[in-house]
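Data availability (excerpt). The following record was deposited with the supplementary files.
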Amino acid sequence: MNSVFIPAFSALAGSAIGGLTSLASAHHQDRARRLSGEKSRRQKLYKQFINEASKLYADALVHDKAEVSALVSVYALVSRMRVLSTAAVIEKAEAVVLLILDTYSIPNKNFSDLRDLMSSDAVNPLRAFSEQCRAELQALN
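Predicted structure:
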């Protein structure tokens, strides 16, 4: 091979390697941006569910009739989770909704009952859901 071509081939090879490195870096950055957006969407959804479910559970403790619109709101959030979340998160969310529905059918709690319930930490209907959400979000890293 002619020694004149070696520098030209070296320059072409260097350009190709540099281009591939740049492409790989852009792909990695794009993936990181998508994962960050996905994580943010799920965090917002889980926050909405926790807020709505907490209000409904508190209402269920002291009332025997549910606001249908509030229940529909929680069901809509679970349906959105079916699109974005793992089966484990959906299972925990459905368990929370069932607990809320069951709580409406038990006798109402008075203030003293609520105080005892809160101080005993016996009932935390969102703990398993929250823990599963945390595990899922950490897995997205």
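Summary of structural features: The radius of gyration is 26 Å.
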